[in-house]
Every structure is written in C-alpha cells, then in structure tokens.
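User: For my dataset I need records formatted as: sequence, then structure tokens, nothing else. Please produce one.
Assistant:
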Amino acid sequence: MTRQTLQTSRSGHSLIEMMVVFSVFSATMILTGMVFFRLFQSEQTATRTTLIQLTISRLADQFRRDVHAADAVQWKDVNGATVLELTSGSPPFRVSYTAVANSLQRDVISASDPHRETYRLPEVQVSFPHSVVGQTDRSIRLAVLRPRATATTDPQSIHPLRELVIEAELGRDHRLITGIESLPRESREAHQ
C-alpha cells in the first residue's frame, strides 16, 4: 500500500523544472529589453540627425538671402571667433554671422528691427572659408563640417554628416533689380 501511495501522490513540479522555466523567461525578457533599447537609440539618432539637417537647411536659405542682398563683406576675428559681416546700403542693414561652439549666431543690426537668431548645431563645426571677393568672383562660402572625431567603437554611434559648403553670390539681388530696371517697360512688367 505504501508503494501505491508514493506513485499517485506526485502531481507537482520539481525545483529543476521551475529553474529552467525561470531561466528561459529571464533570457527572453533580457533580449526583449535589449531590442527595445536599441530601437529607442536608433529613433533618437534619427531624430537628432533630422533636426540638424532641418537647421542647416534653414541656415542655408537665410545665409543666401543675406549674401544676395548685401553690397559688401568683411571678415573679422573677435575673441578667437571668426565673424562674417555683411552690409548693404539700400535698405540699410548689417548682418553678422559668428561661429560659436555648437551653434551659429546671426545678428541683425538695423535701426528698425535689431535681433539675434541662434542656429543650434550640436556635433557640427561651422567655418567661413576666406575667399577674395573681387569683380569676377563674388561668391561667399559657409562651410558646415563633419562632427568632431570621437574615439568610440560603438556601431550605433552617430554617423558623420557629409561636408557641406553653402555658397552665395554677393549682391545678386541688386544686380537683378538693376538689370530688370534697364529693360524696356513691356519686358519689365513680364518679370514682375
């Protein structure tokens, strides 16, 4: 009778079976957590890269408009930072671009509407390649360079941005207006 009692009373799980189930569950949870962490990192990197590209696009548009409207350009060195200053006589305005750490400041100095705009560009270097602006070459350049090199072996680290040079022709708007004003009246109305 004792042999029958021992055989029929075993209906539970052993400690080893429970440890195997918990180990498999723990491994599954760890792998799932790692996948979600990598997805979150990828999403952050994509968002950061998109924001930088949008900021560079806005900067390029504004820089071209300022250079096209300007009559003269001057490069200055203020406290170790290069400053690009654009001036125009009609309507009178002065715009300066200053490359500061991880950003570019645009200062508009005019009597009617002085203001400062800051383009935040983390991990990007901005510089003004000096070029001699003469009668034949009137182009002004703004270089947006790759991020500073970082010593990392992480494959998920931010990929370097491509080197981008924004180029605009000094005083282009004034020459276009002068050219349109010199046309006959019928042609001038067609351009407007």
